[in-house]
Amino acid sequence: MPEQYRALPVILILAFFSFFFSKKIVESQTSPDQFKLWRNTWFIITLIAFLANNFWIYIVIAGIFIWFVAKKEDNKLALFFAILCAVPMINVDIPAMGLINFLFSINYARLLSLAILLPAYLVLRNKPGTLAFGKNLPDKILLMYMVLSVALLLRNTSFTDMTRGGVYTFTDIFLPYYVASRGIKNLQQLKEVMVAFALAGIVIGTIAVFEFGKHWLLFSSLPDAWKVHWAMGGYIGRGDDLRAVVSLGQPIVLGYVMMLTLGLYLFIAKSIKSRTLYLLGLLLVLAGLYAPLSRGPWVGALVLIIIFIATGPNAIKRLTISFVTVLLFLPILGKIPGGQKVMNLIPFVGNAETDTVDYRVDLLDNAFIVFKRNPLLGSIDYRDDLADMGMTQGQGIVDIVNSYLEIVLRYGLVGLTLFLVFFLLILLAIHKSMRKIPDKKSQKYLFGRTLISCLIGILVTIFTVSSIQLIPIIYWAFAGLGITYARLTSMEESYNIEKPVLPTSRLAIKT
Q1: Contact 77/184 with Cβ under 8 angstroms?
Q2: What is the DSSP letter of 244?
Q3: Which of 124, 101, 106, 230 is nearest to 171 (CA)?
Q4: Could you say which of 126, 141, 412, 421 has the lowest number of CB atoms within 10 Å?
Q5: C-alpha distances in angstroms, 494 versus 93, 147, 350, 399, 440?
Q6: How many Å apart are CA 178 and CA 124, to the nearest integer?
Q7: How far is the C-alpha of 289 from the C-alpha of 287, rounded, in Å?
Q8: What is the DSSP secondary-structure string of 400-444?
Q9: Which residue has the higher pLDDT, 333 or 386?
Q10: From the CB of residue 141, how many other CB atoms can be counted at a distance below 10 Å?
Q11: What does the pLDDT average to over 226-251?
Q12: Contact 76, 179 (CB under 8 A)
């Protein structure tokens, strides 16, 4: 029996358990009909992917299905997040019938952008009251960054390749940001988006724990089943353990998603009435964060938690208690069964695989030499230059394990400055909005704490990984959520978010 047919029932059982458990956690945050729509869509997309046996059959059927489902969901970004991690993000070129080499590359995330976010954008841009793109400062900075990234493609490539780059910029950067910053009508919908992402994270976290425990990557057979090549998604170990990947291609991408799931779970936790249920959910999220054995997201998660506590009530007291608890727990951890293995993996504490740290240090040193050759606008040949300096890894590639480093090498100081200023403006907008809220224990303030913590966690984590797979799509969307939060909290209208009214008609099929 082909491996994908053996893996499919295991995935479905684990997902069924995850959704059953998650329903109890998020039942007060969203309507039963909406939860059912997200859950059923996830299952059907997974079935299509594993049963298609051909990439193009899967793309066509999944695309039509997702487009139809999106018509039922008023909150497009919530649906986008709920199913974003369901299928691996495998790139395949769309043939051009001999006119050119290919039209452009398609993958699952890009399919979701075209089927969900593009129709939402077309509606929003013509809708009265929607702020036109470019009317605020973050929009202008992002526009300059996108134009720069596309224009610099002309340095040593064709106009056709530059056009493809424009398509990818539109689908992977602009659409997630635009819909996230314009498509959410009120704080209840913002809550639904957070819940949807956390729900997706709990599902893949559960599967990740299984992969880690059983040493079986459940999605690794899909490329062979689709008869396509994928350089990611393979078996990677750390010590004696297998690093979980699930559908995300690389362990560190899984860790990145689970880091954000932890941040959003802290938001959801405030509404979980059962202490036992809260602790079980937290344990599951933490286990999912541990399973990929990616230390960069662990550092990001630690920073996220510190920011979340620091922006809340009684911050100094809570930070002190947390710090003392960690100091007391670390010696105990080294004495319990398996605890020493965990300690060896902890950044700045353990000594496992220090060669990865050495590689990052050497990469920074050599990258600085390459950077000085083209400091303002970077170079398209930076990977070749680094390869000539001996920075090629065992896989035969130069792995730029730092998003900021990749940006400055490719787009120079101009590109890096635009990137950093953009996110700084988002963080300042969120912080400014939070300061205007008098009740620091209100749910409206909690929205801000969660978003600013997640964004800072993202900015820390991407220092340890290049912007691959879903990583950039997610941080552009979260930046858009920051704009939405600032917009909604500045409105004079008040939204009842403590006990939201969820009309059943909101999920009706739009005609």
Answers
A1: yes
A2: P
A3: 106
A4: 126
A5: 48, 38, 50, 48, 17
A6: 9
A7: 5
A8: ---HHHHHHHHHHHHHHHHHHHHHHHHHHHHHHHHHT-S-TTSHH
A9: 386
A10: 20
A11: 89
A12: yes
> Other CB atoms closer than 10 Å to residue 461's CB: what's the count?
26
**φ, ψ of residue 21 in degrees (nearest 5):** -70, -45
State the residue for tokens 């018509």. Answer: 71
Structure tokens at 250: 């690389």
- From the list 426, 401, 405, 427, the residue with the least C-alpha distance to 416 is 405
Digit-coded pLDDT (tens) for 43-68: 999 999 999 999 999 999 999 999 99
Q: What is the DSSP annotation of 80-117?
A: HHHTTTSS----EEEE-TTSSSEEEEE-HHHHHIIIII
8 A C-beta contact, residue 153 and residue 161: yes
CA 463 to chain centre: 15
CA distance 317 to 340: 30
pLDDT at 255 over 80: yes
pLDDT value, residue 509: 34
User: What DSSP designation does 291 have?
Assistant: T
Residue with the two structure tokens 């978003």: 451
C-beta neighbour count of 56 within 10 angstroms: 15
Residues in the chain: 511
- E strand or H helix at 76: helix 76-82
Q: What is the per-residue pLDDT across 227-236, written as a single tens digit (0 to 9) for each?
A: 998 888 888 8
Total Cβ atoms within 10 A of residue 396? 7
Torsion of CA 138, 139, 143, 145, to 10 degrees: 20
Task: Give the residue carrying structure tokens 């344990």.
Answer: 283
Q: What region does 294 belong to: left with phi over 0, alpha with psi -120 to 50, or beta?
A: beta
Could you tell me if 258 and 201 are in contact, meaning their C-beta atoms sit under 8 angstroms apart?
yes
Tokens matching residue 410: 């490719």
| In the block, residue with structure tokens 């526009």 | 143
**Integer CA distances (angstroms), 57 to 49, 54, 114, in order:** 9, 5, 17
